[in-house]
Amino acid sequence: MKKIISSVLIMGLLMMSGYIYFEPEIIKANADSVVVTQAVSEEITISSPADVTMSSAIPGMTGNPGAPKNASTTWTVKTNNAQGFNMTINSTSTPSMQLDATWNFSDYSPATANVPDYAWSPPAANVAEFGYSVEPATAADTVALFRDNGSACNTGTLNTADRCWLNASTTAVTVINRTTNTAAAGEAEVVKFQTESNAKYLKEGNYTATITATATMN
Q1: Contact (CB, 8 A) for 181 and 126
Q2: What is the DSSP string of 113-155?
C-alpha cells in the first residue's frame, strides 16, 4: 500500500512539474486580424436657385445704350468625386431672350465667334443683346475660355469680375472644370447676365431666357 501511495505521489509530482514546465506554451495567445471594407460611392448635386430679374426695365424705344442692365444667379455644386466635376451652360432657344416668336433680344455678338469679349461691347444701332459671364468660387476652376490676362479672354490665368462676356447658345458650353472634390458646403458658381438695347424698337412685355447649368462628375 505504501508503495502504491508513493508511486501515485511521484506520478502526481511529475505531472505537476510537466504542467508547470509546459504551461507557457499551452496558454500562449495566437492573434489574427481581418480588414473590414466599406465602399463609398461618388455623388454630385447642384442647387436650384430662384429665377432672376434684370436690375431694371429697359425703355422699349430709346433703349439703354451704354448702361447695360444686369442680374446674377448662383448654382452651388457639391461632389465627393475625387476627380471633381465640370459645369456647362446652355439656353433653350435661339435667340435666348424672347417675348415671342417676333420680339426678342439678339444673342450677344463677341468680336471673335465663340470667344468671350473681355469688356462688354455695346450693340449696334437698333440692336438689343443678351449675354453672360461666369465667376467660379475657385478662380482656378475657370476653363481657359473664360480666363483672362487683364485685357483679353481665352488667355492668362485670371478670372476678373464682370469680364469675359459670351452669347448663350443651345449648344452647351463648358464654363467650369474642377479636378478635385468639393468641401461639404460645395462650390458657389456665379453666372452673371447683361442686356443692352441701342434704341431697338421692342414691344412692351417680359422677355425671358431659360438658362440651364449642368454639373457632371469628371
Answers
A1: no
A2: TTB-BSSPPPPPTT-EEEEEEEE-SSGGGB-GGG-BSSS-BSS
Q: What is the pTM of this model?
A: 0.85
User: Is the model's pLDDT at 15 over the cut of 80?
Assistant: no
Domains in the chain: boundaries: 44-217
Provide Rg for the chain, Cα atoms. Answer: 36
pLDDT, tens digit, 9 for 90 and up, residues 164-186: 999 999 999 999 999 999 999 99
Report H helices in 28-95.
none
pLDDT tens by residue, 92-112: 999 999 999 999 999 999 999
| CA atoms of 122 and 106, how far apart (whole Å) | 12
How many Cβ atoms from other residues are within 10 Å of residue 78's Cβ?
18
Q: Quick one: cell of 71?
A: 442680374
> Is the distance from CB of 176 to CB of 89 less than 8 angstroms?
no
Angle at 154 between CA 163 and CA 138, to 5 degrees: 65
H/E stretch holding 25: helix 2-27
Q: What is the mean pLDDT of residues 75-99?
A: 98
Residue 40 has pLDDT above 60, yes or no: yes
Q: Quick one: pLDDT at residue 25?
A: 57
Tell me the one-letter amino acid at 166: L
SS3 per residue for 16-73: HHHHHHHHHHHHCCCCCCCCCCCCCCCCEEECCCCCCCCCCCCCCCCCCCCCCEEEEE
